[in-house]
Amino acid sequence: MFRANIDGMNTFRLQLRFLVPLVLTLVAAAYLALPLMDQLTLRWFSRDLDLRGSLLASGLSDSIGEALAEHRVTHLQALFDRTVQDERLLAIGLCSLDGQLLERTKGYPRGLDCESAQSTAARADPVLQIEGGAVHVGFFAVSDESGRVADLVLVHDMSFIQRRSQDTREYLIILIAALGAAIAMITVVVAQLSWRGWVAGARALLRGEGLIRPLLQPAPELAPLAAELRSHLRELHDEYRRIRGPEVEWNPDHLRSLLRTQLRGDEIVVVSNREPYIHESSSDRVVVRRPASGLVTAIEPVMRACSGTWIAHGSGSADRQTVDANDHLRVPPGRGEYTLRRIWLSAEEEQGYYFGFANEGIWPLCHVAHVRPVFRETDWLAYREVNRRFADAVIDEVRSDDPVVMVQDYHFALLPLMIRERLPHATILTFWHIPWPNPESFGICPWRREILQGMLGSTILGFHTPFHCKNFIETVDRNLQARIEHEDSTISFRDQQTLVESYPISIQWPDANGAAAQPSIEQCRRNVTERLGLSAGQKIAVGVDRLDYTKGVLERMQAFGRLLEQHPEWIGRLALVQAAAPSRGVLQEYRSFQDQVRNMAAQLNEQFGREGYRPIHLLMEHHEREAVAELYRAADVCLVTSLHDGMNLVCKEFVAARDDERGVLILSRFAGAAREMAEALIVNPYHVEECAAALQRALTMPEAEQRERMVSLRMTVQEFNVYRWAGRMLTDAGRLRLRRRIEARVERHHADGVL
Ligand code: ADQ
Q1: Which residues contact 114 (CB under 8 A, 6 or more apart)?
Q2: Each residue's pLDDT tens digit, 306-332
Q3: Which atom of ligand 1 is nearest to 671's Cα?
């Protein structure tokens, strides 16, 4: 209704834009045309009267000739009186050759002698104003065999011409008005039709229907176009929101109130492989460690906000000592805001499911980083079995039949369907933290159909970017008999509908352990400089990564070396500090990668190092959050050069740490974050020269430009924070749950025969 009103207004405005100029044009046309019309009619009638006059004169010439010859001019009076009975002919006068008015009828204008009659008739406009109005004066020679014998003055009444002219003018005005009305009508109708048609067409297109047949069946060939259009609109909207600055501030309170309103008291369970707190035995005591994981960084604040249960693999050496009889533990330690349930895996299970299928199979399959995936049957079986064990744990933990279960990442592709089979009313949100490849790349996986079916047990399936969603939908299209609704980005497979949507992940903002709680920038610089033995004033470039071949650490060091080659002035004045948390060291691929990183650092240090100067500081260890934040705050440049990354949180953490609005971010275009963080220096990490040039540009960037870029980046991260990520997903979940409840109620009413 509201939309119809808006459409009506729009159409009306559109029509006014046509009609007002049209009416003005017609009035102007009439204004110019009428005098022209008068002149024309006058000229036509003058010519007509001249013709009539000469005919009349020649008709009368015999009688006049005879009368003159017989000197009986007075006899002509009767003839002339009869002739002027013609209503248009007002009077006749007869002039002798010497210009004497010999005879005239009654109405002959006084004062019109032969001379003035002749001169008037010779004018282009032979009209004379007399008492009774305008008259036309004609002067015609009267001849017999001997030649010209006299002249005849014919005075015609012009009032009928004026009457005609008036009539013509009226007709013309009526014609122009009618024409205007007709054009206006046509314009209105055409505008209505075309506007409605266009609007209906555009809406139809957005709904996935054809432009020219909005009321008919959807045109499937236009569906991808509509989906793309919608996704561009969404991106534009996000872009617009980024430029405009925060509208609603997403923070833990806002998330909590959203949980209260959208998911009133609903139970929330998170499942992930990595646990948020790992207990390790260290000499004679137990220490708690936070893993270097983007996923944990992102989910933890959500759990603290909604106080649910987090089910994860208990991987720490002291984990068993710290749980209760149900393998439960309240975390964060000392604050106890939510429950952690630990699952124990045997070494074989961990090897097959985690290191084998997840990290040697799916990880390289989804990251195009030129490492060949390995698919072993035994790994697959272990992966399936561990997924089943986590499904059992979910069933164990939940108290209702329709909990909200948030399944995290590529370790649990089969879990959504396993939960769905046992809890048909559960709302399952699966978030895939890594990229999704194109259908051809995914096609090499021997169990691709099982993986896709497993994931389609989800109510909502989230990826970081629309591009990953598109790849996933195309992969399903290629491999399963599923119905894909591009219109609302859903996949229907065996009575289960899955919404596939992009939810770009982010970090906490405001961050409880963030910049405000940190020492000053100067202090951080001093700490890092002293700890690493750098010289005062040396510039610092930092990299912070898990040691993974997808993160582009080798490429980064190569670019650093190329910069020192091309700009030797930096030797002694620039250090690359690379914090590298060892990761998946059980796998050969990762061990050899660590060796390569170590070797390249050693080789560059050898090549460019001097007495008291080490170009690369490779810190191969896990750092505490404060230590990572200190590095970010001490840095002049932060390098994120992933070869492929779902999102990448390091770049966002760096920006969040820089409350001084200084420092430059160099960011790989192959990280999902590059879509949001356009103010970074965006690079292709495979192109060493380009990265070296970006490094040079970053190191010499004026402070004003640094600030400009950093302010904008900080606004983006502030608004698009992790609470918004979770909030958007949970809002969608709330909406779908509400819809399902209404549908269930309607079905019950049907069954009860109420409707
Ligand atoms: P990850 O591949 O783990 O995450 P990323 O997003 O970069 O990658 O997050 C890494 C996290 O580990 C950051 O919080 C960082 O501070 C921390 N970290 C890195 N090195 C560390 C070190 N040496 N010591 C301590 N902490 C360290 C996956 C996907 C990403 C996606 C996240 C979240 O691969 O693309 O952004 O999940 O969805």
Answers
A1: 93, 95, 96, 99, 100, 101, 151, 153
A2: 789 999 999 999 999 999 999 999 999
A3: 35
Contact 410/374 with Cβ under 8 angstroms? no
- Return the residue whose CA atom lies nearest to atom 27 of ligand 1: 292
Q: Residue 673, SS3? A: helix
Give, in order, the Cα–Cα distances in Å from 461 to each of 161, 431, 445, 729: 87, 6, 20, 9
Bridge partners, residue 278, by sequence: 289
The 3-state DSSP composition of the chain as helix, strand, coil percent (nearest 5) reads: 55, 15, 30
The tens digit of pLDDT for each residue in 505-537 reads: 999 887 755 556 789 999 999 999 999 999 999
From CA 362, how far away is CA 377, in angstroms rounded?
13
Residues of the chain with pLDDT > 90, as a percent, come to 58
Token pair listed for 419: 């939960």
What is the SS3 assignment for 544-567? EEECCHHHCHHHHHHHHHHHHHHC
Backbone angle region of 533, left / alpha / beta, with phi > 0 → left and psi within -120 to 50 → alpha: left
Q: How far is CA 574 from CA 383, 387, 525, 568, 707, in A?
A: 46, 48, 13, 10, 21
Counting every residue, how long is the chain? 755
CA angle 318, 321, 326 (to 5 degrees): 125
Distance 433 CA to ligand 1 centre (A): 11
Cα(294) to ligand 1 centroid in Å equals 4
Closest to 544 (Cα-Cα) out of 482, 472, 625: 625
What pLDDT score was predicted for residue 193?
Answer: 64
Q: From edge to edge, which strands make up the β-sheet containing 681-683? A: 616-619, 574-581, 539-546, 637-640, 664-668, 681-683
List, for residues 163-179, the tens digit of each pLDDT value: 777 777 777 778 877 88
Ligand 1 pocket check: which of 511, 551, 640, 648 to mutate, most ligand atoms within 8 Å of Cβ? Answer: 648
Amino acid identity for residue 339 in this structure: T
Strands lying side by side in the sheet with 147-157: 101-104, 89-95, 147-157, 133-144, 127-130
Atom of ligand 1 nearest to the CA of 292: 12
Average pLDDT, the chain: 87
- Closest to 508 in 3D by CA, of 255, 730, 746: 255
Measured in whole angstroms, the distance separating CA 405 from the mean position of its chain's CA atoms is: 31
With contact defined as beta carbons under 8 Å apart, do 548 and 584 qualify?
Answer: yes
Please identify which residue in the block is written with the tokens 């690079």: 683
Give CA–CA dist 309/342, Å, rounded.
Answer: 10
HEC readout, 454-486: HHCCCCEEEECCHHHHHHHHHHHHHHCCCEEEC
Q: How far apart are the first and last CA of the chain?
A: 26
Radius of gyration of the chain (CA): 47
Question: Is residue 122 a contact partner of residue 138, using CB atoms and an 8 Å limit?
Answer: no
- Our CA angle for 142, 143, 147, nearest 5°, is 140
**Type of residue at 315:** S
Ligand 1 atom having least distance to the Cα of 548: 2
CB 398 within 8 A of CB 327: no
Q: What are the pocket residues of ligand 1 if the criterion is a CB atom closer than 6 Å to any ligand atom? A: 292-295, 297-298, 433-434, 505, 544-546, 579-581, 622-623, 628, 645-650, 653
Q: 168-177, 230-239, 261-270, 745-754: which has the minimum mean pLDDT?
A: 230-239
Task: Give the integer Cα–Cα distance in Å for 277 and 506.
Answer: 20
